[in-house]
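Researcher: Here's my situation. A collaborator sent me these components and asked whether they could plausibly form a single complex. I don't have experimental data yet, so a predicted model of the whole assembly would be a useful starting point for our discussion.
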Amino acid sequence: MAANYNQILYVLLLPLFGAIFQALFGKALVDALGVKLGRRVSGTLAVLPIALAFLIGVQLTQALAALPPDQRHIQIQFADWISLLSIKIPFEVVVDPLSMTMVLVITGVGALIHLYATGYMAEEPDYPRFFTYLNLFIACMLILVLGGNLALLFIGWEGVGLCSYLLIGFWYKDLANAKAANKAFITNRVGDWGLSLGMFLLVAELGAHAKELGITDGRFLSYDNIIPHAVNLLQGQPAVATAIALLFFVGAMGKSAQFPLYLWLPDAMAGPTPVSALIHAATMVTSGVVLLNRLHILFELSPVASAVVVAIGAFTALFAALIAFGQTDIKKVLAYSTVSQLGYMFIGCGAGVYWAGMFHVTTHAFFKALLFLGSGAVIHAMAHNQDMRNYGKLAKYIPITCVTMMVGWFAICAIPFTFISSGAFSKEAILGGALANNHAMIGDVNVGRFAGYAGLFGGFLTAFYMTRMTWLTFFGNKERWKEIPVAHHEEHHEDHGHHGEAHADHHHGTDVHGFFYTDEEMAVIEAEKPHEHHHALDGSHVPHEVPPSMWLPLAVLAMLAAGGGIYLDSGERFKLWLQPDKLPVIGELSTEPHNLPLPLTMISLIAGGLGILLGLAFYYKGLPDKEGWDLKKWSPFRRAAKEQFGFDNAAMSIAVDGGGDLSRAAWQVVDVHGIDGVVNDAGYLAGALGALLRKLQTGFIRSYALVMLIGGILLLSTLTLYMYGLPGGSR
Amino acid sequence: MNGGSPTGFGLLTLLTFLPTAGALLLMLVPKEYGKFIKYLALGVSIATLAVSFQVLQGFSSSTYHFQMTEYVPWIPALGISYRMGVDGISIWLVMLTTFLSVISIWFSFYIAQREKAYMIFVLLLETAMLGVFTSLDMILFYTFFEASLIPMYFLISIWGGARRGYASIKFFIYTFAGSIFMLIGMISLFTLCRNVTGFPSFYIVDIQQQVANGRLWVGAMQLQPWIFWSFAIAFLVKCPAFPFHTWLPDAHVEAPTAGSVILAGVLLKMGTYGFLRFCLPMFPDIIRSQVPVICLLAVIGIIYGAMVAAVQPDWKKLVAYSSVAHMGFVLIGIFSLNHSGMMGGAMQQLNHGISTGALFLLIGLIYERTHTRQFSDYGGIKSQMPIFSWLFLIVMLSSVGLPGTNGFIGEFLALLGFFQSSYEGVAGLSLGFAIVAGAGVILAAAYLLYMFQQVFYGKNTNPTNLRLKDLKPWEIVMALSLVLFIFWGGVKPNTFLKPMEASIEAARLMATGDPGKRPVWADLDTEIDLREGDHAGSLVRRMHTEVTPGDFYPQRPLAISTLEGTQSAHE
């Protein structure tokens, strides 16, 4: 079947046009059709491009799958972008199993989340702006995975970062959200620094051997040049291979929230919940894993870099899981769980089983999107209160949400032998790959193996804290929002309503032209509109199930989360699909370790089962008193976990406060007094010199005559000395 | 010898002096006709823009030689002549100047006092700036270079802010003191050239020709660093590079908006243009040893400028310090002596002109409403002025260097080239430079996002700002015309890169090539020979068909060429 792969362009352009349409006409549409109908039309027009892109993606994927495995890499050049004599970077697209897998995840899960968002954001006054950003995000994410070279990947990479920034700060009137957005963008920029240095190093190396390798077209950043030539290029230069790989990994750490660059992700939960599901769980944060899969040859050539990848992945998986124990905000629990699961994906990549990393990306996209959307439904039902201490026994009020979220909970707990726990399949593959092989080595130490053990322990932790979250929310013995201590009512309702006061003095600037200011205060009307807050959460509150536009995506995702794992795993479907992209560098890796006391699945079953059982034992009856409102009753471990073990505070005070102080010192001391001091002093010196000389201009003839006389004498005596030498001298 | 025969005045003269003619015309208009004066000035600047399009139309990207050259003898005894011409280095700067002049004059419809004098100064300034970029005689260049100070001085000192007296005098004296050394350098070059050729000439091409054939510096090698620095100091002050930057924040803060736009957009580019025109091609024997010094200053500027910018309480001052950082990227690009890097540096010049010009313009638009630049007076403007905040966001992202905007292309290529030179240890650069310079991109995001947050996010609590209206249609059109170039440069950068490439490569070869490999300047037909190959007549690498990208990278043998190669070596 000869498919027209140029259609991939439609996949890229549909969301982009969607975004442009929303930006230019969305507001007009809502205004013209009235709020209710307008929003519905605008929302539909936001969902459609993504759904269409998904359909085209499915078609192309089928065509690609029909090709023999070694031909499943199609690179199409569309136009020139940067063409210099020294380097050429065209607009090009790569269609291969990796990119198409991601296209399906992005557009498929993306379309569901868009649909969900049309319901979730229904009362948002800035409706079109939200969908502008969301469509733009899909477009950027598609550029990231489909771009045929690293520079295009970088467009997508920073583009999704921008959308993330805009969406985290979507409710910008709360300065905390704006700060969270800044933190996300800037932390990601640290990663981008590494990524760009990696690109530069790769170009320098490929360029320096261009003639020998036979690269004549100057596309040094294109995958079809990098991947085939990387082996020849880096085989004899392990240090360079390690440097390049680690620099790219720094980029991946930023985007995929690995320690220590994970700091932005928990704060990113300030964005609307569909954003958390789409960007900060299912798609964007997995781009680091995609990058590693794309450039896996570079990592395979460097066991040291691979070892660093698994070590960071394993540490992050455990660290974030521990932090999740101290969280009371339902979205924060899921955020740390995401960080932790991303750690697993990197364990897979570092261990050399890249396909397993991608497998986990896929299953995680299903169940984590499900969990986030479910949490959104809970939050929606609970008057936008996110604190699990206020929940309890919600199962009876919101049954659909409860059932679907239970599916997600079971999937992330990764219980083998149950067939509906999709996380189990991908996690098995990752841990099996880590335990069975010796790819990630530093010296003689098999770091990958340690990471595998850490991952097993992490599985236990995951099951525990996810059980905690689920039971605190849906079960227990009390409907706790009916008995929130008074002190805690306040802190959730402090937003809005501070306007209207202090408007008495309208001392605006001199309005020379008379048309800068309106007569009425536009902003007050605008600012008073509430956003995610509708009414107070108090004893009289009755949670309601969400509308169909919201539970339909939940149901679909629940089916995917339940069946996705076993479907993709059966007959090694997923592995064989991604495998052809692999060049034989480290060879075929097994995912079935033989050196364990028990089969791996048994150990996983024990770890996951133990986690669930312990979780039930702790939280079956609801919120224990020592995790309640009174932080003083908390155990020291949990208090530390709540504060991310102090890491966030330390990093922020060094970077923000320390950096700020340093900068102020640079400005006030070095710049104003040091450098500019010298400049001004030079000016004053000239002035002072002038003032001094001015004193000589007395205007008295006699003083001028005196000076002349002295000068004449001095001149004559010098001349005399010069001509005749000193009296009595040797001359 | 190389003078050729006088050509008379042509298109470039028309371009350069059209604003002056407009200024003369304005002098005849009574000052009471403020509105008419503004429209007349705008018309003159648009006509100049049209002429510059004519120049662009006739420009050919395939040669590094000066084009549309004009030659009128002036003071033959001293070798001073009236010579004009454009090449790839100057063509876009000419376009930038005419474009930003239109924008500045358009914005200056806000000027409410002494409109006539104001418009005359702006038009005179435009002539001076265009003269700098088109003159090919060093004395002529110097004249325009210094002449540009005078209208700018008056713009700041008459229409400026509270500390305008201090700022304008500082601006004038500082930059003037910097460039006085340049005159000495020019006279030295003139003398050296006369010693070699036997006839007096300040013509840049004559001097480049003697440099290219390696004769100019014979016997005067010890002078080379001195003369280099006499030029470099002038341009470092103009750029401005750390630590010569302290005039800039004061000048920017006090200048009226149009002055800031022109200052950031064009006047700073005179520094980098000077580097490309003089410092790179004329000092081939010592340039490599001076590169680390200038790059060190540039890298310090990138980090330092960004840090200081981050803590400014004044909006314009923040952007002023950010210019120090951004111009640092231009400098590292130019002085990477690497094709990608120099192209990136040259591109970044234009980007900085567009995006920083646009930043000052937008700040000016809101300043006209609120008359304050303190961040503490702002906050929550986004809901109040959504269109303004959209435009500002786009411009800010271009300044951040977000891919898809022009800022990315320049920064990316400049850093790429700089990294490569550092990696290969060219000219004493080491990797540390490139790694630190790369970190400047993080800081850029930090201070620009912080700026955006302070103005646009949060709640609008300032009662004055609660009644602000969004931009007027004409203001939106004005800002959009700049935004257009932000996306154009980001998506189709070849429009801007292609015309520069031949001249930039010629400058690079002048700086790095051995005497036999340097471009030939005297004979305009040489270029055809250049493409023919390695026979005796070829002095420059062929620029078009035969060059492969690999030629721009010093080729190293692979440590182990292939897996099979290793195996066969074992057998």
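Model: Some features of this prediction you could bring to your collaborator: Residues 528-545, 561-571 of chain B have pLDDT under 50 and may be disordered. Chain B touches chain A through 93 residues (CB under 8 Å).
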